Amino acid sequence: MCPLRVMYFPQHLLQKLNQQIHNKTDHTHNTNKDNKRTWATFTYHSPQIRKVTNLFRNTKRGIAFKATATLQQLIRPTTQNLKSDYEKSGIYKITCKTCHKLFMGQTSHNLKMRFEEHTHYIKNNDPRSSYALHILNCRHEYGNINDTLTLLKQVNKPCLLLLCEQMFIQSLHHSNKLITEQIPMNTLPCLNSSAQKHLTSQTSKTPTNSLLPTVSSHSNCAPTGHHKLS
């Protein structure tokens, strides 16, 4: 200890002061330790949540609230979890980027998978589909799925796919919008009114006046040596 302090302050007074400081420090540390609280966060949905949180009022657990609509949620771009058209099955059309004629198709799988099959045929010079045959024969340009493919009618029952496809093919044929490779050779007897009503009720909503009552055969014009195309 410094000789100056010994000269002016008694030894027992310094020891007493040191002990008081030490006791005060320990008391403060123990008090903070006893008063330490743990916190829980609740989403404030309604005033009823207060009744639940009031149960913790006299405990060492602190309650904090957060809002259901925060600023971050308000400025965040909205994303929908809806199933995109490319993940659905049904009747679709593909537009040729060169002549703007339409190919009509149907699939029980998702449209993305079916479109990839068409592009695979084109890249491998395989005229297995009418669309691939059109692109290869005419040397036209084919685009990506976002620019060329459109879902016309979602059909969840495979037994209705062919019927719906033929009605759309016949409609496009009469309006001169169908690619040459898919023009039907024959027409089937007209659908009666009850069949049309059943078709409309079983498929997604599409204006019935856009469909002609007659149905074409599923066989397409194909060059000799090739199978029938769809």
Protein topology:
Elements (H helix, E strand, L loop, with lengths): L2 H6 L2 H24 L3 E6 L4 H6 L7 E6 L4 H5 L14 E6 L6 E6 L3 H13 L6 H9 L6 H4 E6 L6 H14 L12 E2 L4 H10 L12 E2 L14
Parallel strand pairs: 1-2
Antiparallel strand pairs: 3-4, 3-5, 6-7
**Radius of gyration in whole Å, from Cα?**
39 Å
* Unreliable spans: 190-196, 203-229
CATH class of the domain at 85-216: Alpha Beta
**What fraction of residues sit in β-strands?**
5-15%
| CA distance, first residue to last residue | 103 Å
The fold-level CATH name of the domain at 85-216 is GIY-YIG endonuclease
Order of helical and strand elements? HHEHEHEEHHHEHEHE
Largest sheet: 3 strands, antiparallel
Q: Give the strand tally.
A: 7
CATH superfamily of the domain at 85-216: GIY-YIG endonuclease
Shape: elongated
Number of helices: 9
What does this structure look like?
- This protein has 230 residues and is α+β, with helices and mostly antiparallel strands.
- It has a domain at 85-216: GIY-YIG endonuclease (3-Layer(aba) Sandwich).
- 40% of the residues lie in helices and 15% in strands.
- It has helices spanning 3-8, 11-34, 48-53, 71-75, 111-123, 130-138, 145-148, 161-174, 193-202; strands spanning 38-43, 61-66, 90-95, 102-107, 149-154, 187-188, 215-216.
- The strands form 3 sheets. Strands 4-3-5 form a 3-stranded antiparallel sheet, with helices on both faces. A two-stranded parallel ribbon has the order 1-2.
- β1, α3 (48-53) and β2 (61-66) form a beta-alpha-beta unit.
- α5 (111-123) packs parallel to α6 (130-138).
- It is elongated and about 120 Å long.
- The relative contact order is 0.11.
- The model is unreliable at 190-196 and 203-229 (pLDDT under 50).
